[in-house]
Specification:
Layout: H1 15-22, E1 27-35, E2 43-52, E3 58-66, H2 71-74, H3 83-94, H4 101-112, H5 115-120, H6 123-138, E4 143-148, E5 154-162, H7 168-181, E6 185-192, E7 198-206, H8 217-228, H9 231-242, H10 245-255, H11 261-266, H12 269-279, E8 288-293, E9 303-311, H13 317-325, E10 329-339, E11 350-359, H14 369-383
Antiparallel strand pairs: 1-2, 2-3, 4-5, 5-7, 6-7, 8-9, 9-11, 10-11
Length: about 375
């Protein structure tokens, strides 16, 4: 039983194996727990065939362990014994005409389905998963399709993620998340990019002790969506919690792609929502506004952060620095970001000059309404 044991457990007969022996299924294909020593170093394929007496009583099992030939992976799924029967069942149950758009899509999904999974998955689960994948053609989104090994040794999860949200970091973090929720570890992952706007990653999470946790699909997809969320997605969520519904959607559409990479690396979405509120108040008649803030992690009361927003054109450093110095302050450093909202007709871009300011005399700076108004009036006085 080493070929079906879980981790280091020496299993003789588990409840899962007993259940399989009671099922009407005559044949099972799965992965053995040992690697091949020839050809290629991968887990061997396990084929179990039930043996019956002439009068129909179960008397044992014939086990064949080895590797499928390359033809099992390169030929059409409809030409491979055992697999072709599952494929035929799915196509018949789907009920689409073979030359229809949906019929061709289902055939493509089956041909592109991870081949080892086609051997191992039961026809009912395969049909359900294929129908789920078919809906992604019309509405691409995060989807997680999990199948636990019949012998409680691993979990196989097909994860679909929109391509614009997928990268190596997301792939790695999703693997860690799945290993955590299933209380196992990543055994393998295989990325592919079927036609369309989705990336697909097939994760295998090895299980080594205890029963496999049953995780709701909604839980899996919520966790994966959080990992794959772009900065723009997070901004939309932040706006939804801070602004009324219709206006939140309008602002999200306008600013989801407005901020360049430098800004998104430096600021979180909470700061962005505040900056959006300031930008929305800019007009041709009043093109400059400021925002004064205490720098996160900065305990020095003689320092603060100053954001200067300029609509239509940047304010030169040679203009900004003297104005600030007239208030007994000096610029320690500064970064400039261009913000380009989306709208029709195209609005004027906004330049954000983010500066660290400190007092020349080393005295604590009191940030209040009067200080803000005085500083903004002097900067706006010559920059409009």
């Amino acid at each position: 039983m080493k070929i079906l044991r879980r981790g280091t457990e020496m299993v003789v007969m588990t409840p899962e194996i007993r259940e399989f022996m009671r099922e009407p299924t005559v044949l099972i294909v799965t992965k053995a727990n040992v690697n091949s020593r020839v050809h290629r170093r991968v887990r061997m394929d396990y084929v179990g065939i039930k043996l019956y007496t002439p009068d129909g009583r179960l008397e044992g099992e014939l086990r064949v362990v080895g590797l499928f030939t390359s033809g099992a992976y390169t030929r059409s799924a409809r030409q491979i014994p055992y697999v072709r029967h599952k494929v035929a069942q799915v196509l018949e149950r789907a009920g689409f005409e073979a030359d229809s758009h949906s019929g061709k899509a289902v055939q493509h999904i089956l041909e592109d389905y991870p081949r080892d999974e086609l051997f191992q998955v039961d026809a009912e689960t395969l049909y359900n998963f294929v129908m789920e994948i078919l809906t992604l053609y019309e509405r691409p989104r995060v989807r997680a399709l999990a199948r636990a090994d019949k012998f409680d040794r691993f979990v196989s999860i097909l994860v679909f993620i929109p391509r614009e949200k997928y990268d190596t970091d997301v792939r790695t973090r999703v693997a860690a998340f799945l290993a955590q929720v299933y209380k196992g570890r990543l055994s393998a992952s295989y990325a592919s990019f079927p036609e369309g706007s989705l990336a697909r990653v097939h994760y295998i999470i090895g299980r080594y002790e205890g029963e496999t946790p049953v995780i709701e699909r909604a839980t899996l997809e919520a966790g994966i969506s959080a990992i794959a969320a772009t900065w723009g997605d997070k901004l939309k969520a932040a706006l939804a919690t801070s602004t009324d519904g219709m206006r939140a959607r309008m602002l999200a559409n306008r600013y989801a792609r407005a901020f360049a990479g430098g800004y998104t690396e430096a600021f979180g979405t909470a700061q962005a929502t505040a900056d959006i509120a300031t930008i929305e108040k800019l007009t041709p008649a009043r093109p400059v506004a400021i925002s004064v803030y205490r720098i996160e992690g900065e305990d020095d009361p003689t320092r603060f952060g100053l954001k200067v927003f300029s609509r239509g054109a940047p304010l030169s450093l040679s203009y900004r620095v003297p104005v600030i110095e007239n208030h007994g302050l000096r610029v320690v450093n500064e970064r400039t970001y261009q913000i380009v909202p989306s709208a029709t007709p195209a609005p004027a871009p906004v330049w954000l000059h983010d500066m660290t300011i400190e007092a020349n005399d080393g005295e604590p700076i009191v940030i209040d309404t009067e200080f803000n108004h005085r500083l903004e009036a002097s900067i706006d006085g010559g920059g409009g």
